[in-house]
Amino acid sequence: MSPLLDDLRRATPTVWLNPNLTSWRSAQADLEYGRIDIDDAEALLLRHAPWIAEHFEGTDHGIIESPFIQRGSMWVKLDSHLPISGSIKARGGIYTVLKLADDLGGPLGDQAFYSRYRITVASTGNLGLSIGIMSAAIGFRVEVHMSREAKQWKKDMLREKGCVVVEHEGDFNDAVAIARQTGKEPDTFFVDDENSADLFMGYAVAGRRLKAQLERSGVEVTPESPLHVYLPCGVGGGPGGVLFGLKTEFEDNVHGYFVEPTHAPSMVLGLATGRYDDIAVADIGLDGITVADGLAVGRTSGFVGKRMGRSVTACVTTDDATMLRDAERFFHSSGYYLEPSAAAGFTAYEQFAHLPGTHVVWATGGSMVPEQERLSSAE
Ligand SMILES: Cc1ncc(COP(=O)(O)O)c(C=O)c1O
Q: Are 137 and 94 in contact (CB under 8 A)?
């Protein structure tokens, strides 16, 4: 048995340096997507910025972006504090819903028009929140299928917004499989977290946004001083899309590290075995259970693994106690609350902090977590 599989089976925190890492020029040549697709996504977001500014608080004139802060030798990208839905999933989810509304062509907010259509999605929680909040504002009917990990407050919030919440006993991949069936029903659009190019492009816009923030902060990215970006990974769409956007801007001067829970290391399992979504963590005896609800994914996205698998520098696994500890430490030192999934990046930073360059921990969610929930998870 390989040492990696041995560590994964035993749920021991581990680091996998990707032997298939290749130059961006070579990886990009095999992709059907490129800069032009990110241009389109950004243009659509810009076009709808006035409407967003009118209907939601906290945006920068309708631009949905998060703070970028420095903490000693580390930088933190606070997608935990993205406006509207408070997680990295806001990037892909909100873009996907706006694009669908654009394609259908009604005025945003026209309930009589949009309530003819239903959007369905499966989620561990945060994608559901982003899709649910934006769809409800536009006027769509929404049905969110939630896996067993999904937190009660996320279900409550969605119901308050008028979304239908369907609860599942199984894990995220089971919920996706059932929700996918709804896509065959009339006037229904299923947002596929495992395979959606639209979600992917929404996440990818983050690359150029971070580039502008780095420039404003006076940070130069060069071959001698590259960017190291630590991304919590669930099904892979969020981190994969962000890395696609960053590679498009910085090519080989950016290194992406994906971080997963020791009990649900589905991306590293798929990449290291070359089996992508053809293998699940249950196949190596893991239960997929973790306090990091957003990362509790047993089978990775084949869509992302096959496209970004040669562009991820390394994968790292971390355990629940470390994520909880790092979230708490960050809260005490910065005042920003992160949910456990969102703190996974700190583990990887510790592994690679000695390398020259600029280190960015992507903190992916937390600002929507209610006060009561924060207290109970701190106990
Ligand atoms: C807080 C948080 N971080 C990271 C992720 C990972 O995103 P993905 O599942 O697209 O890999 C999620 C997914 O829901 C999340 O909720």
A: no
